[in-house]
Amino acid sequence: MKLQETDTGDLSSGNNRFAIVAARFNSNIVNNLLTGTIDTLKKHGVVEKDIEVFYVPGAFELPLAAMHLVDAEEHAAIITLGCVIQGDTPHFDFVAGECARGVMDVSLSTGIPVIFGVLTTNTLEQAQLRSQLDGENKGVDCALCALEMCNVIKSIRKES
Question: What is the pTM of this model?
């Protein structure tokens, strides 16, 4: 068994196409995540024509859009981006939890990496800190995860 001694796996882009589904709710935060995601994919060799962006109303709608994108069989991975901020009601728990479950269900039932890039924070300030254009940005992490998972699956399947 060969042990890997790096912090990250293979981040090469190959000839893969990527879909990004972005929620419009909390768009000021999500747009920053989207910028981080696209910039990182491009930095790792994905050409602009191989990145498609689709918008949905909110985080709750992300899994359904991801499922339809998987059905289209055009993308190696799908990245979902959203932001759910805790409020005074339990609405946060339902939206965040069902969104996460839905994204995971799509990924596990199809075998396609569907990356969960939904910030679930207690405050707007926490969301802003995790979506900076010149600092921490979870969209960057999601792009790296998508790239790596495509290569891990390719390696498992022994595809060239």
Answer: 0.92
Domain ranges of the chain: 18-156
Q: What is the reported pLDDT for 1? A: 55
As beta bridge partners, residue 85 has: 121
Has domain 18-156 been given CATH number 1.10.60.30?
no
User: How far apart, in whole angstroms, are the C-alpha atoms of residue 26 and residue 60?
Assistant: 13
Q: Is 110 helix (H, G, I), strand (E, B) or coil?
A: helix
The model's pLDDT over 50-99, given as tens digits with 9 standing for 90+, comes to 999 999 999 999 999 999 999 998 999 999 999 999 988 888 888 999 99
For 54, the token pair is 């689709």
Locus of tokens 């998972």 = 149
Distance CA(158)–CA(138), nearest Å, equals 30
- Decide: 104 and 137 in contact? Cβ < 8 Å: no
- Residues listed for the chain: 160
DSSP one-letter code for 105: H
How far is the C-alpha of 138 from the C-alpha of 141, rounded, in Å?
Answer: 5
91 flagged as catalytic: yes
**Annotated catalytic residue, options 44, 68, 75, 91:** 91
pLDDT for residue 116: 98
